[in-house]
Amino acid sequence: MDREEKLDKRIAFTVSGKVQGVNFRRFTQKKARALGVVGWVRNTDDGNVKGEAQGSASQIEGLRAGLNEGPPRANVTGYEDKELDLKEKGVAEERFEVVR
């Protein structure tokens, strides 16, 4: 399976609750990399965590499950995502990164 076929789904996600100061971004990065998902994650000024992720449908479902749970010290109270048009985004990232 070539890279384009494998990374056929991209989402933008926002996670709310106690998600800052609990290693949520690092948790997300580790989970995404373990699943083979590429993209990015960052904290927002309003206390949430947001990002974009691209992978196969099953990889994205695995990431969603992890984001809904979060690391041990987190308390996720909300999760939203929306599918993005791959053509608008262009070429996928090479790996999953924490951005500031």
Q: Would you spell out the secondary-structure blueprint of this structure?
A:
Blueprint lengths: L2 H4 L2 E10 L5 H12 L2 E6 L5 E7 L1 H13 L5 E10 L1 H4 L6 E3 L2
Parallel strand pairs: 2-5
Antiparallel strand pairs: 1-3, 1-4, 2-3
Helix pairs in contact: 2-3
Shape designation = globular
Fraction of residues in helix: 25-40%
Tell me the number of structural domains: 1
What is the element string, with H for helices and E for strands?
HEHEEHEHE
How much of the sequence is in beta strands?
35-45%
Under the CATH scheme, the architecture is 2-Layer Sandwich
Rg of Cα set: 13 Å
The unreliable regions are: 1-5
Which CATH class is shown? Answer: Alpha Beta
> What do the pLDDT scores average to?
91
- Structural class from helices and strands? alpha+beta
Q: What do we call the CATH topology?
A: Alpha-Beta Plaits
Number of E-state strands? 5
Distance between the termini: 33 Å
- Helix tally equals 4
Largest sheet at a glance? 5 strands, mixed
